[in-house]
């Protein structure tokens, strides 16, 4: 059988959740499990994340899936709802949703009596400069006053556009958030994703919202997971399926982009972009065999890649780590001009999945 397998390490997930607890001991943890738990498989991750306080998802469907699996923790819908009908379901199911535009507020107020929404927690989003979702600082205070007057419990929330770097917008976003928070006291607050959890301990407030750090990938371009004391949760593995000896001037793969300059041993591995392995290849890229990095050569095909095994012991059936504990997903991403988040989320259905 073709070997292409995604292994999920539940203990690593628990370890990383514990790291969040160490870093933000006074905040509740909203574990972000949107997009199928960043591609890790929401069902398996929920089981390993049982010690979290709440879950964060992008939309109602993702929240309902969690409820159907039997989990009763609070769930926040970070993009809010997309229709009036969805708002009634949010209220009925006692989900917590972000509101970021006036129509959502009207739906909330219209339906609160019918579904007994008294005290329902509502996350009110401040657009502090990212200009994606949210009310501007000039309008949000009135929105919050209105929701409070209807007995909703408000959580003031925002998202940093550059928490992973030292961009000047960070200070502006932070100051706006603090000013609005002060004007709306008493109010619950939440503004930290993974990068901000590390960077801004003074902004942890009531709820932190870790995503990528739970899965053991880095939110920062200049700090890897070892420096952050996180453990990679996913290992993506395949096998060597063929070995070839080639001579100088022979080429490998589609487009003949690689030409040997001397005799070499190459191995073909059962993985390709049809499994979700990236094809972009803008910088030299590697896989790992027995914890040793091994260079890739030529183009990534739909089902196969080629690697240079001239200097290592390799046989048909030898296991190859595409990413995991030895070859970090963030390094594969950097070699392909993207971020670990994207590679994790866009794996295809083809690799088998196994939880350890
Ligand atoms: C509103 C919000 N909060 C938290 C997160 C988690 O971010 P990260 O995965 O960088 O920790 C995201 C991710 O996209 C988000 O959109």
UniProtKB/TrEMBL annotation:
Keywords: Isomerase, Pyridoxal phosphate. Pathway: Amino-acid biosynthesis; D-alanine biosynthesis; D-alanine from L-alanine: step 1/1. The modification N6-(pyridoxal phosphate)lysine is found at residue 34. Its EC number is 5.1.1.1. It comes from the Bacteria. The active site is at residues 34, 254. Residues 233-356 form the Alanine racemase C-terminal domain. The keyword Isomerase applies. Substrate binds at residues 132, 302. HAMAP family: Ala_racemase. Belongs to the alanine racemase family. Catalyzes the interconversion of L-alanine and D-alanine. May also act on other amino acids. This is Alanine racemase. It comes from Acinetobacter corruptisaponis.
């Amino acid at each position: 059988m073709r070997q292409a397998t995604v292994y999920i390490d539940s203990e690593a997930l628990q370890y990383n959740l514990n790291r969040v607890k160490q870093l933000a001991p006074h905040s509740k943890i909203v574990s972000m499990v949107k997009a199928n738990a960043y591609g890790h498989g929401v069902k398996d991750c929920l089981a390993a994340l049982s010690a979290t306080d709440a879950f964060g998802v992008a939309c109602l469907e993702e929240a309902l899936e969690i409820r159907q699996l039997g989990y009763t923790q609070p769930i926040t819908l970070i993009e809010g709802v997309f229709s009036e009908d969805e708002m009634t379901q949010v209220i009925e199911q006692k989900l917590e949703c972000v509101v970021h535009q006036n129509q959502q507020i009207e739906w909330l107020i219209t339906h609160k009596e019918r579904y007994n929404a008294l005290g329902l927690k509502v996350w009110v989003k401040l657009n502090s400069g990212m200009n994606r979702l949210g009310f501007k600082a000039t309008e949000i205070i009135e929105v919050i006053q209105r929701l409070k007057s209807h007995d909703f419990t408000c959580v003031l929330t925002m998202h940093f556009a550059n928490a992973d770097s030292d961009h000047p917008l960070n200070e502006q976003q932070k100051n706006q958030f603090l000013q609005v928070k002060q004007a709306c006291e008493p109010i619950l607050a939440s503004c930290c994703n993974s990068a901000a959890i590390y960077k801004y301990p003074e902004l942890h407030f009531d709820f932190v919202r870790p995503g990528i750090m739970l899965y053991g990938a880095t939110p920062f371009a200049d700090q890897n997971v070892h420096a952050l004391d996180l453990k990679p949760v996913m290992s993506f593995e395949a096998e060597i399926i063929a070995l070839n000896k080639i001579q100088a001037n022979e080429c490998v793969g589609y487009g003949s982009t690689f030409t040997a300059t001397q005799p070499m041993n190459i191995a073909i591995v059962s993985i390709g972009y049809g499994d979700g392995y990236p094809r972009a290849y803008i910088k030299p890229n590697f896989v790992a065999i027995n914890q040793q990095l091994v260079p890739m050569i030529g183009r990534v095909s739909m089902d196969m890649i080629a690697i240079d095994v001239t200097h290592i012991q390799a046989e048909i059936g030898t296991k190859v780590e595409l990413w995991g504990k030895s070859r970090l997903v963030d390094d594969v991403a950097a070699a392909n001009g993207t971020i670990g988040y994207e590679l994790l989320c866009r794996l295809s259905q083809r690799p088998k999945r196994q939880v350890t």
